[in-house]
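Example 9 (inverse folding). The structure is encoded as follows.
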C-alpha cells in the first residue's frame, strides 16, 4: 500500500515514523517528568499523600535562605578545580600518545581502563587506598618518611579534593580518548609545513593543535562542569557526606530531603535550582569560550 503512494509522501511517512517513537519516548521520560518536577516544586507534597497543597515560592525561598542547603554548593568547587587539571592532563597525554611513541596503544588502553570500571567498585577500592591506619597511600608515604597518619577522608579541609582525585583517575582516560580522536583528525601536512617554517613543538601546539581541538575542549569542559555540579556516587559511598557534612554535595542533599525527610516539594525545588544552575554555568562558559574561539 505504501508503495502506491508518491515518492514524496512515502519519504514523509518514513521520516515521521522514525522520528515519532524517539520523540514520544523523549516527551514521556524527559520533558513530562521535568514539567512535573517544576509543578511539584511549588507544593508541599510528602511523596505519599494524594494532597499537594500549593505553597508558591516558599520552597525556593527555603533553598536560597538556608545555608545548610544552598551552602553545600561550595563542596562542588573541588571537583571543578580538579576537573580543569584533569582536562589539562588529558590533552598532554593525548598529544604524547598521538606521536611516534613505542607501545602507545598499550598506554592508551592503560589510561582508558579506569573509565570502564564500575563507579561504586572504584569508590570501595580507593576506600582502602585512603584508609588512615591501613591504607596503601599512608603506608607508601610512611616508608618515604612523609608521614603515615593523614586522614584523607576525615579532614574537612581536603576531603573533597581527595574524593575529586578519584574522579581524576577514573575520567582522565575518557577525556584523553576524546582529545586523541580530535588530534587524529588534524592533517599531518599542517605540522610538516610548520616544521619547515621553523615552528617548535610549543608553537605547533599553540597555533595548530589548540585551535583545531577547541570545540572538543569546549565539549569536555561542558562534561566537567556538569559532572562537578552533579557528583554523587563518590562522597555517598566513601564518606556519606562526612566529616560533619564537609563532603556533602547538592545532589546528596536533594536525596536526603526527599527520601529521609519526605519533603518532595522542597527536593523538587532544589532539583530545579540545580538545573537552572547548570544552565547558567554552561551558558557563561559557552559565552566566554565562543568569544575566545572567534
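The amino acid assigned to each position is listed next.
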Amino acid at each position: 500500500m505504501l508503495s502506491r503512494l508518491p515518492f514524496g509522501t512515502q519519504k514523509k511517512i518514513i521520516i515521521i515514523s522514525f522520528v515519532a517513537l524517539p520523540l514520544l519516548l523523549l516527551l514521556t521520560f524527559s520533558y513530562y517528568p521535568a514539567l512535573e518536577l517544576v509543578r511539584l516544586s511549588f507544593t508541599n507534597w510528602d511523596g505519599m499523600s494524594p494532597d499537594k497543597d500549593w505553597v508558591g515560592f516558599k520552597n525556593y525561598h527555603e533553598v536560597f535562605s538556608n545555608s545548610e542547603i544552598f551552602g553545600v554548593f561550595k563542596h562542588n568547587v573541588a571537583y571543578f578545580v580538579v576537573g580543569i587539571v584533569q582536562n589539562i592532563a588529558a590533552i598532554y597525554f593525548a598529544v604524547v600518545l598521538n606521536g611516534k611513541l613505542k607501545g602507545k596503544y598499550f598506554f592508551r588502553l592503560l589510561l582508558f581502563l579506569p573509565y570502564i570500571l564500575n563507579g561504586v567498585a572504584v569508590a570501595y577500592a580507593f576506600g582502602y587506598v585512603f584508609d588512615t591506619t591501613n591504607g596503601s597511600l599512608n603506608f607508601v608515604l610512611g616508608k618515604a618518611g612523609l608521614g603515615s597518619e593523614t586522614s584523607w577522608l576525615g579532614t574537612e579541609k581536603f576531603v573533597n579534593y581527595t574524593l575529586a582525585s578519584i574522579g581524576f583517575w577514573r575520567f582522565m582516560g575518557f577525556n584523553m580518548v576524546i582529545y586523541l580522536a580530535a588530534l587524529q583528525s588534524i592533517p599531518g601536512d599542517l605540522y610538516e609545513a610548520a616544521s619547515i617554517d621553523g615552528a617548535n613543538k610549543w608553537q605547533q601546539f599553540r597555533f595548530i593543535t589548540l585551535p583545531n581541538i577547541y570545540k572538543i575542549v569546549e565539549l569536555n569542559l561542558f562534561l566537567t562542569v556538569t559532572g562537578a555540579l552533579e557528583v554523587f556516587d563518590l562522597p555517598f559511598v566513601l564518606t556519606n557526606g562526612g566529616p560533619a557534612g564537609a563532603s556533602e554535595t547538592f545532589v546528596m542533599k536533594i536525596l536526603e530531603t526527599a527520601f529521609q525527610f519526605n519533603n518532595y516539594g522542597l527536593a523538587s525545588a532544589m532539583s530545579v535550582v540545580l538545573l537552572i544552575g547548570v544552565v547558567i554555568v554552561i551558558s557563561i562558559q559557552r559565552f566566554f569560550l565562543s568569544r575566545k574561539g572567534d
